[in-house]
């Protein structure tokens, strides 16, 4: 095992998807904590679905499959979706779950139709890719071994998803730290927050935007299925471990990291343990590991039960 | 229509209008700017509301309400269910949008005087399952003065503990907020308001569903705030304790029915006007109320006896 | 024109045996989905079905593997449907268990079950790729549905199952209406809430399973959610809502399937969903009851009434009005002149408003038994609330204020 990890092949083939998966999982789990506490866990689901029409539109407008136009398109679609959901909820006085269901399914349907009507399907843009990404195809061709991590020339050829996700993760972590108080207060007691003058609407929109950025950046590399799983499972499991916000966030990051690494290893090497040379979907397996962690927390997490004394 | 003519003939007609029918939209801009001395001393009162109108779904819930809370007073906001008491507070603070009217806090628009106000919403409005301890909640009262980007430190924790001690909750500082009883939760929220160190305290139903011990603690803390020159107003349900706890009353029923010191305002006539026929039928007799005809009815019990 | 002719042909079932069966099946499916969705929506369980539909994937894949292992045809549709129903049922049970046994809210439970079971399904799909018989399984078709190249037996299966689901909704409509409207009352009258909820989820499950082949598991939830939400804009009554949702769902399914049969590159699932969304969009905008345009108009009218009334009362007291909106409204009514002075008509209106306000105020004291306090909203003229006799009594009081004191 150690020998394998030290080999150049590991650095070339296994390290990039592990790294990208790890960064993606952390970037999604972090905002997921606040979405969970705001009972908006499914916003991540909605946003990762509507990324599809955004990406297709970006392709139709620019004619390329370059990463940045697609990220912008997906981000714009996410913001449009959040605005539409709010509009249906407030103007139409429709319960938020139903409002979400209306908006994201319709936008996703529009995305599929657009894809079908355009030539996008011929340039490696398809629904399967959108759903479960292509983690396995991330290869670091110039890697000669672990030493390449210190070689600037080799580092420059890392699959571009890795530095992109690193930037996104750092930005989200920084924003979370800077607006920690405001996020906590607007989540816990919005009435008090707006009475002391916090722009609750703006903070909510900012969280949605961070969610969209995380979802979109991760989605390209790992597919929407991991994105949804990471928004929900690690924070949910972490909530069952502690009664303090800071510790919950820390636990969620640990769980996300375990899911990312564990899921990739199980998918890549698991079949080999049963004497099969093939690998199964890493994206799917990461979600399954996250689910297993959540199941364990549901069965044995020290804070899994609701508080005994609730408000009258 | 002889009456109508007489109304048209008299101008201004204000003497003929009861106080509740005076929603002066006509706020001169000079009042806020201070170019002309305000006609009444209310202009820089802790809370001054003029013509406040708030609507839910096309029907006004609070209509044209004027109210003034003088400094160092403790006011009960009283009225039947659905009279818009909470709506009045939220509308005055701008937490919900107003259709018409305006409110000033210490002579300034609320947005510029927020730091002087502590608002305690109804307990139902927060997330009891949130991962926060009692002291974390109290520390949230310190947030406005901590500045952007700062995280609470040991000094803030000590302040929070001191505020918890004032409401007798120091032993529960490290309990998750949902594990406390209703009364304990209410005390934590009062501690948070204390941490804000405000000049105006607005509380929405602070005594709803709390135990007797908590009620006593809450009242004594609020009264000590008033005695220290702060201003307090509570949305209040229990007519029997109005006279014992408060020195002023604002009677609402959509519109303002009456406002003033308890002795002059908390009368059976005014209560009748606010509660309509329901006061008698619901058995909501108000021991503290001043009877309409003092000579003909049994004497009101002394204020102390009204406290349960 | 050619497309239109093709559409008419498809809508009138002239476009071939398979296309007609699919359109009929989709219509039936839409009826059932709209009906079942109405109850899910009223019970605020709309998104639970999203967990169920994603949870079908591991069932489909597992059923394929099992059927292949026993030497059968892995793509046998009823077998796949059975597998998907079992795993979707498990998914629903998990959502219920997580919400009950832990402090997690339902949305978190839905998100977790949805994503994890979908991930598991993807893993199993890649396992199928490894199995020799699985290379051409084509199970990806279940993600987004595909009616192109459907076997006739499959079309018949779907039409029949759709009809069964629609019939079930029809048979269960009374208990479901009762439970949706008032669960406690329903329990008291012997309609078990738990049993009905279970039946309702069962129908939703059936819809999901039938819809897999046509709409696909990612979008099937749309057929359960959009029709009832659209119906909500037109009515406040439970039974009407259920009826409308059923109709909307049926129309969306039938028309959507017909449109998609015109040409190859019109995928059935998305077209059906977009047809449903079109119905929703129209309802959202123009419904006279809860539509956006109507609400906007009402809001404007209320604002105008409040400002006019308060402006008149201010004028009656001889105070100047500064509020821009108030001034504009008073000017538009011809109640003040440009210089702000009252016109003759304005004087009359101000006096009427002041008198009305005075009457209301006195009415509160004189007629407590008439429930005056509840009826007062600061806008309604007193004549609309009290009888002429009562008003006369108030006016006597107003004329001699000293007599009241």
UniProtKB/TrEMBL annotation, chain A:
<dbReference type="GO" id="GO:0043190">
    <property type="term" value="C:ATP-binding cassette (ABC) transporter complex"/>
</dbReference>
<keyword id="KW-0472">Membrane</keyword>
<comment type="similarity">
    <text>Belongs to the ABC-3 integral membrane protein family.</text>
</comment>
<feature type="transmembrane region" description="Helical">
    <location>
        <begin position="161"/>
        <end position="180"/>
    </location>
</feature>
<keyword id="KW-1133">Transmembrane helix</keyword>
<feature type="transmembrane region" description="Helical">
    <location>
        <begin position="12"/>
        <end position="30"/>
    </location>
</feature>
<feature type="transmembrane region" description="Helical">
    <location>
        <begin position="67"/>
        <end position="85"/>
    </location>
</feature>
<dbReference type="Pfam" id="PF00950">
    <property type="entry name" value="ABC-3"/>
</dbReference>
<dbReference type="InterPro" id="IPR001626">
    <property type="entry name" value="ABC_TroCD"/>
</dbReference>
<feature type="transmembrane region" description="Helical">
    <location>
        <begin position="97"/>
        <end position="115"/>
    </location>
</feature>
<keyword id="KW-1003">Cell membrane</keyword>
<feature type="transmembrane region" description="Helical">
    <location>
        <begin position="249"/>
        <end position="267"/>
    </location>
</feature>
<feature type="transmembrane region" description="Helical">
    <location>
        <begin position="279"/>
        <end position="300"/>
    </location>
</feature>
<feature type="transmembrane region" description="Helical">
    <location>
        <begin position="42"/>
        <end position="61"/>
    </location>
</feature>
<dbReference type="InterPro" id="IPR037294">
    <property type="entry name" value="ABC_BtuC-like"/>
</dbReference>
TrEMBL record, chain B:
<dbReference type="InterPro" id="IPR027417">
    <property type="entry name" value="P-loop_NTPase"/>
</dbReference>
<keyword id="KW-0406">Ion transport</keyword>
<dbReference type="GO" id="GO:0005524">
    <property type="term" value="F:ATP binding"/>
</dbReference>
<dbReference type="InterPro" id="IPR017871">
    <property type="entry name" value="ABC_transporter-like_CS"/>
</dbReference>
<dbReference type="InterPro" id="IPR003439">
    <property type="entry name" value="ABC_transporter-like_ATP-bd"/>
</dbReference>
<feature type="region of interest" description="Disordered">
    <location>
        <begin position="18"/>
        <end position="40"/>
    </location>
</feature>
<dbReference type="GO" id="GO:0016887">
    <property type="term" value="F:ATP hydrolysis activity"/>
</dbReference>
<keyword id="KW-0067">ATP-binding</keyword>
<comment type="similarity">
    <text>Belongs to the ABC transporter superfamily.</text>
</comment>
<dbReference type="InterPro" id="IPR003593">
    <property type="entry name" value="AAA+_ATPase"/>
</dbReference>
<keyword id="KW-0862">Zinc</keyword>
<keyword id="KW-0813">Transport</keyword>
<dbReference type="InterPro" id="IPR050153">
    <property type="entry name" value="Metal_Ion_Import_ABC"/>
</dbReference>
<keyword id="KW-0864">Zinc transport</keyword>
<dbReference type="GO" id="GO:0006829">
    <property type="term" value="P:zinc ion transport"/>
</dbReference>
From TrEMBL, chain C:
<comment type="similarity">
    <text>Belongs to the ABC-3 integral membrane protein family.</text>
</comment>
<dbReference type="InterPro" id="IPR001626">
    <property type="entry name" value="ABC_TroCD"/>
</dbReference>
<feature type="transmembrane region" description="Helical">
    <location>
        <begin position="238"/>
        <end position="259"/>
    </location>
</feature>
<dbReference type="Pfam" id="PF00950">
    <property type="entry name" value="ABC-3"/>
</dbReference>
<feature type="transmembrane region" description="Helical">
    <location>
        <begin position="271"/>
        <end position="288"/>
    </location>
</feature>
<keyword id="KW-1003">Cell membrane</keyword>
<keyword id="KW-1133">Transmembrane helix</keyword>
<feature type="transmembrane region" description="Helical">
    <location>
        <begin position="76"/>
        <end position="98"/>
    </location>
</feature>
<dbReference type="GO" id="GO:0055085">
    <property type="term" value="P:transmembrane transport"/>
</dbReference>
<dbReference type="GO" id="GO:0043190">
    <property type="term" value="C:ATP-binding cassette (ABC) transporter complex"/>
</dbReference>
<feature type="transmembrane region" description="Helical">
    <location>
        <begin position="151"/>
        <end position="172"/>
    </location>
</feature>
<keyword id="KW-0812">Transmembrane</keyword>
<keyword id="KW-0472">Membrane</keyword>
<dbReference type="InterPro" id="IPR037294">
    <property type="entry name" value="ABC_BtuC-like"/>
</dbReference>
<keyword id="KW-0813">Transport</keyword>
